[in-house]
Amino acid sequence: MRIYTRKGDEGRTHVIGGRVDKDDSRVEAYGTIDECNACIGRVVASLDPERDKDFITDLTLIQHELFDAGADLAQERRVHPYRVDADMVSRLEGRIDHYSAQIPPIRQFILPGGCEPSSLLHLSRAVARRAERRVVTLGKRGQINDDVRRYLNRLSDLLFVMARVANARAGVADVEYRSDRT
User: Fold this and answer.
1) What EC designation does it have (predicted)?
2) What is the phi/psi pair of residue 20, to 5°?
């Protein structure tokens, strides 16, 4: 199979149920999910395989689920059953609780940064938030799988908590936002 098909050279692409412009809100939504997936892949590459086995397991599963989310959103009209469901959202909530128990409660806003995995998790969180906004925009246009929006919302929360845990594991303090920087 060839990688290039030349079918998209005119600025249109295939979605399940037809063709749309490449800047269509549907393509923006699942494209941003793909970008988030790539960021998470970079996180996984930065992790210590021994110390961070749990992170690697969770993030690899999330990468698969993000493909499912993209497939759900790629349907111009619903042709296939949705893949992302409420159980996946609940599982993320469980992981948020699991990792939150490993760090002190948050007292202030936290600046993105710290060790490399933490910084990359924060970047992934920001992209997940953007993906969520793109899905909200798409949902205003027509029917979507609402569980994808909820999944992305929980995912960004999970990535934030994991960023804090990554710093704790590396012995790096979170940098709290200060409004009195003078």
Assistant:
1) 2.5.1.17
2) -140, 165
